[in-house]
Amino acid sequence: MLETHELTKKFKQMNAVDSVSIYLGKGESVGLLGPNGAGKSTTISMISTLMKPSSGDVLLSGESILGKTGKVRKILGVVPQEIALYEDLSAFENLQFFGRIYGLKGSDLKERIAERLEMVGLTDRKDDLIKTYSGGMKRRINIACALLHDPEILIMDEPTVGIDPQSRTYILEMVKLLNEEKGMTILYTSHYMEEVERLCDRIYIMDHGQIIANGTNDELKRILSNEEAIYIDVEVPNQEFSDQLFAIEGIRQVQDTEEGVKLIVAKGIRKLPEVFQLAEALQVNVLNVRVEVPSLEDVFLHLTGRTLRD
């Protein structure tokens, strides 16, 4: 339905986006993961016709949309990373303003506003000024604005950043409903790996302006199919213990956790005796050890060298 072909954006001598090709099939929910500065928001800006690419193309049903912004904007809804609302207007007035920009008016506009307010659970607050809203409520109204014109494609750029757990859950359930029951095509970026795993059919991983991997959740996890994750819970975290674990041959990743450390090692290689010897030498009291299949977060760290929130 929507695809980019070697999409590139240069700022002076730097390629913020470098030959990015992604595809969204009709009715799919597709995740775009990447650490800060990976180029996700710039890619979204080009797809949504807010920024012209330096080279490459954006295709809608096989036809280029470059220079044809009106056609794609009619079917595209965008939820930006930064809240785009007028603080001194009420929720109803904001929705009315953006609805008119979409060409809606009269009873049709009023009906759409009522439906979207109900969808985001804020009908009873429709006459309150946006500046009185919590961060989560503002993001829900932001989403309502993007849905006023019944878009076929919805782009969401980190829609749950910095909000309360209740609003986050509400937004995730709404996105799932829009995709699974309404058949809306969704491109979703987030700093929360579990959100993308929960919502998306396929995932693209982006770093330094390039797509470095893509596939389903299970396909991406197979990148580390010959490895396993070992969680070591300790009584008191010890940075020297974490640092020296890197020196043990065969340990490929060491990541600090709230309970201790997580190791990524090749399957079948016995490293626990060396880990326990090191713990004893450093007087680290090990409370628990468990072995699990590597997660999507482990794959991301393996590919980028950074965690998603870095």
From the structure above, extract its key features.
about 300 residues, Alpha-Beta Plaits, 2 domains, 11 helices, about 35% helix, DrrA1/2-like_C, AAA+_ATPase, transport
Question: What's a concise summary of this model?
Answer:
This protein is of the alpha/beta class and 310 residues long. It has helices spanning 40-47, 69-75, 91-101, 106-119, 135-147, 165-180, 193-199, 217-221, 239-245, 272-281, 296-304; strands at residues 2-11, 14-20, 23-24, 29-33, 55-60, 63-64, 76-79, 153-157, 185-189, 202-207, 210-215, 227-234, 251-256, 260-266, 286-292.
Please compute the radius of gyration using only Cα atoms. Answer: 23 Å
Number of helical segments with 4 or more residues: 11
Determine the mean pLDDT.
90
Shape: globular
Tell how many strands the DSSP assignment holds: 15
Order of helices and strands: EEEEHEEHEHHHEHEHEEHEHEEHEH
What is the second-level CATH architecture of the largest domain?
3-Layer(aba) Sandwich
Main-sheet strand order equals 7-8-9-4-10-11
CATH homologous superfamily label of the largest domain: P-loop containing nucleotide triphosphate hydrolases
Task: Return the structural class.
Answer: alpha/beta
Low-confidence segments: none
Q: Kindly, what is the distance between the CA atoms of the first and last residues, rounded to a whole number of angstroms?
A: 32 Å
CATH class of the largest domain: Alpha Beta
CATH topology heading of the largest domain: Rossmann fold
Total domains: 2
Q: Estimate what percentage of residues fall within beta strands.
A: 25-35%
Approximately how much helix is present in the residues? Answer: 25-40%
**Largest sheet, strands/sense/barrel:** 6 strands, mixed
